[in-house]
Write a structure and sequence with these properties.
By secondary structure, the protein is an all-alpha fold. The protein has a single domain, classed as ABC transporter involved in vitamin B12 uptake, BtuC (Orthogonal Bundle). Helices cover about 75% and strands about 0% of the residues. It is built from 14 helices and no strands. It has helices spanning about 5-25, 35-40, 45-80, 95-105, 110-135, 140-165, 170-180, 190-200, 205-210, 215-220, 225-250, 255-265, 270-295, 305-320. Helix 3 packs parallel to helix 8 (about 190-200) and helix 3 (about 45-80) runs antiparallel to helix 11. The chain is globular, with a radius of gyration of 20 Å. The chain starts with 5 loop residues before the first helix and ends with a helix.
Amino acid sequence: MIRPITLPLAVLAVAGLIAMVMSVGIGSVAIAPADVLLVFLGEGSNLHRTLIFELRLPRTLSAFATGGLLAVAGALMQVLLRNPLADPYVLGLSGGAAVGALLAMLAGLGGAVISGSAFAGAMLATLMVFGLAHGTGSWTPSRLLLTGVVVAAGWGAVITLMLAISPARELPGMLYWLMGDVSYARAPWPGLGVLVLVCALVVPLGRSLNVLARGPMQAAALGISVRPLEWLIYILASLLTATAVTMAGSIGFVGLVVPHMLRLVLGNDQRLILPACALAGGTLLVLADTLARVVIAPEQLPVGVITALLGVPTFLYLLYRSR
C-alpha cells in the first residue's frame, strides 16, 4: 500500500507547531503551553502577551523561516550538482553576504542596512560564480562547484582581513553574525514569504527534478528542457540562501543534514522532499535556537554553534550508514 504523501507532511507540521509552542514558552520567564494557547486566543496576562508577541514569537518565526530556507536550498543544490554533499553555502553565497554585512557594521549602519548589504553581497557572489563558471561555453556542475569553492575561499580571505583590521568594539557583533544568530531577527515575514513562494514554484516541478537528479542526458531524452531548469534551480537556491543569510548570518549543516535524513525516511521523490525540507528544517532550527537560549542561561549561544554540534555527528553517522 502506498503511503499518502500528505501523512509525513502532516506529522512534520505538527512537530513544527509543537516546537514553536515550546520555543515561545521557554525562557527566563517560563510560560505553560496552556497559557501560550490563551495568549493566541486573545486572553492571558499582559506580561505573557508582551513576551510572546514582541520578543519570542518573531524570533521563533525567524528561526523557522531560516531553517526552512536553508533546507530547501540544500535539497535544490544537491539536485543541481547531483552531489549529496552539496549544501547552500558551497557556492560562496554566505561569504559574499558576510562581506556585505561586515562592511555595513564597520560603517556603523543600522540593522536594516546590514540586512540589505548582506543580501546585496550574496547576489553579487551569485553573479560572480555564475559568470565565472559559464566562461566561453555552457557551465557544468563540476565547473560550477569548483568555481564556487574558489570564490568562497576568496571571500574567506576578505573576511579574515576585515576582522583583523576592525576595531575591538565591533568584533563581538561581527563574530556573532558570522557564527549565525537569530536573536536580532525581528522581521520573519519576508523570509516566510520567500519560502512559501519558492516551494509553490518547485513542488509542481517535482517530476522533472526527479529525472534531472538521475542525470542531464536521461532528462533530455525524456523531453525535459535541462538548461532552463538548471538555471531556475540555481537562481531559486541562491535566492533562498541569500534570504536566510540575510536574516540570521551563516548557519551551517541545516541544508546538508536535513535533506539526507529525510531521504533515508521518505525516499527521493522531490515532490515530497522539498516541502518536507521546509517543515523539518524550520523545526530543527527552532529547537536548536531554543537550546541555544537555555543551555547556559542567562547567556545565549549563537544558534550556528548548536547546529554544528548537532550536525557534525549526525552527518558522520549518515555517512557510516551509507557505506
